[in-house]
Amino acid sequence: MADLEAVPEDWSSALVVVAHPDDMEYGGAGAIARWTAQGKNIAYVLACRGEAGIDSMEPSVAGPLRVEEQIASCAAVGVSVVEFLDHPDGVIEYGVPLRRDIAAAIRRHRPEFVITGNFRETWPGGALNMADHIAVGRATVDAVRDAGNRWVFQDLGLEPWNGVKYVAAASSPMSTHAVDITDSFDASVASLRAHKAYLAALSGDMADPELFLRGAAEAVGQRFGGVLATSFELLRL
Predict the structure, then answer these.
(1) Nearest-5° Cα angle at 45, 151 to 111
(2) Each residue's pLDDT tens digit, 170-204
(3) How many domains is the chain built from?
(4) Does the record carry Zinc as a key word (predicted)?
(5) Number of other residues whose CB lies within 10 A of the CB of residue 143
């Protein structure tokens, strides 16, 4: 496989848009911690509250708990602005309503860089991705264009925003770029560990933040100078 290029850092503000609590923490949070340490302004928008994500816990209990855990997780990487769109966990649909909500968030926050999750059908290694991730990632890419068109979603009452330079999808099987997270690796582990209830319901490597994240960072680093790294598929506007 080809070596990965460094993600450009010629920007000062970013918006993370993902489907669920914990999505960015399985790899991408190390980059977020690096960038907030540089003084960059980063906010999060989540399509749902993760209420259907814990098999042993009723959604009415899981949703509020996972919101609290996501806020704590974001704090661990220097992010204090966290918003939830309240689409239904597990059955998020790609379509105009989702694009509209994400376009509104882009117009409100006016980022130069938009970060989302993997929207391809599989993960690196071939494991099947899930519908919520694909829907939200794809809608985010499209909403960047929507946000810049003043004749689309006029009812939002928000000025269009054409200032996005890049869109990046974390942990894509088609990754082109990477970020050195050597100095921010511990923060990424702390960020994932904040999802205590979710982790407690898991088994295997994904239940162990240090083990999972180190293995993933070392694997990406093999294509990026041998450092601990996290990968992104970068789309340029």
Answers:
(1) 60
(2) 999 999 999 999 999 999 999 999 999 999 999 88
(3) 1
(4) yes
(5) 28
